[in-house]
Structures are given as C-alpha cells and as structure tokens.
Please model this.
Amino acid sequence: MIKASLIYLVITILLALIDAIRIKVRWGKVGDIDHLISDFAAVGAGIPAMVWWVVAEGKTFVSEWLFVLATLLICLSFMAIRLCFYDPFLNLFRILFKVNPTMRLDYVSVKTTSYEDQHSNKLSFWKKRVFALGAWITCLGVYYLIFKSW
Model:
C-alpha cells in the first residue's frame, strides 16, 4: 500500500503543477480556474495507481471481502493524500510562477470553485492538512495491522 500511496503522492504533486500552470496562463483573464477538471484528473490518475496495486498485491488476498477492505483503505488514503498535499504544492508552484497574491503556502482564494475550500472553512488551512495526514497514517496503520504488509 505504501508504494501505491507514494505513486499517488507524485501524481498529486504533478497535478498541482499542472493547475499552477493553468492558473498562470489564465491569470488576469478569468476569475478562477475550474477545479472540477482537476478533481476528475485526480480520480483518473488514481486509477492507474490502483491498477498497479491490484496487479502487484491484489492476487495475495484469500477473500474478496479482504480485497474490498484493502481497496477501500487505499482509496481513503488517496483522498487523504490529495487533501494533505495538493493545496500546499499548488500554492508553492503559484509562488514560483508569481501568481499567488499573498505569496503564502496557506493561500485560499476567496472566489474559489473548489467544493472542499467552500465547505470546510471552519478549519484552518493547516489543521485540514494535519487531519488529512493523520487520516493517511491511520489508513496505513490499519492496512498494516490487518494485512501485515505495507
């Protein structure tokens, strides 16, 4: 599971770079980029990481229910990775491209179309990342406790 998670982490960083480039290209022309494209890309990019895991590890499960449980844990870990790392890397790339108005890693646009940004503003930027990191570590721990492998 840890290899699949690391693959998805790299994918998440690459998607943040792509979105930073999209923002740079449209800077000053539109109010905000459509984050739905990025969300679909995240799901679409997660599929190859999941397929890689199934090919590498999926055949070792003795029960289809254990396979479903493992798949669920990996999907949850992918969501936690995206929540934890995507926005800080997006903001880092935006700083490097000079299209981050505050030049801070914790920047959140006030006119964002991101569902997550609009509906979770009761938690601070960094608290969301800490909770997501905790969720990822929890998924890894539960996976290890059940399946005795990383």
Observations:
- The CA atoms of residues 2 and 115 lie 28 Å apart.
- Residues 2-147 form one domain.
